[in-house]
Amino acid sequence: MANQYFFDARIFPCTRCGKPYRSRKAMYTHFRFSCENKRTFFCNLCNAAYFYSHHLKRHIRQQHVELASKVVVTQGVVD
Ligand SMILES: [Zn+2]
Ligand SMILES: [Zn+2]
User: Fold this and answer.
1) Which of 10, 38, 56, 76 could cross-link 50 (Cys pair, CB 3.0–4.6 Å)?
2) Of the ligands numbered here, which is closest to the C-alpha atom of 67?
3) What is the 3 CA–ligand 2 centroid distance (Å)?
């Protein structure tokens, strides 16, 4: 009885590092923005992050069509 919340809780483990989250959304937020902090290419329009510059460029073309020519691709490491 006392521990029912633990057993009832649905866990969404990060598919990369296994860190557990209570919601899929929280897990995806972690996965996209902070998991292992290895994503180094950032979209400065929506903060999407990618491992490869060509993935970010594809994202910009697909998600920010009208702004694609103005986007500056930045590379860095998240703390
Ligand atoms: Zn993770
Ligand atoms: Zn974006």
Assistant:
1) 56
2) 2
3) 42
Q: How much is the pTM? A: 0.42
Distance from Cα 1 to the centre of ligand 1, integer Å: 31
Regarding whether 69 and 50 lie in a shared domain, the answer is yes
Going from the Cα of 61 to the center of ligand 2, the distance in angstroms, rounded, reads: 9
pLDDT digits (tens, 9 = 90+) for 14-70: 877 788 899 999 988 888 877 766 667 888 888 788 878 888 899 989 998 887 676
Domains of the chain: total: 2
Residues 48 and 24 in one domain: no
- On whether the CB atoms of residues 64 and 71 are closer than 8 A, the answer is yes
Alpha helices, DSSP H only, in 1-79? 4-8, 24-33, 53-63
What range defines the domain where residue 11 resides?
A: 4-36
From CA 12, how far away is CA 28, in angstroms rounded? 9
43 and 68 share a domain?
Answer: yes
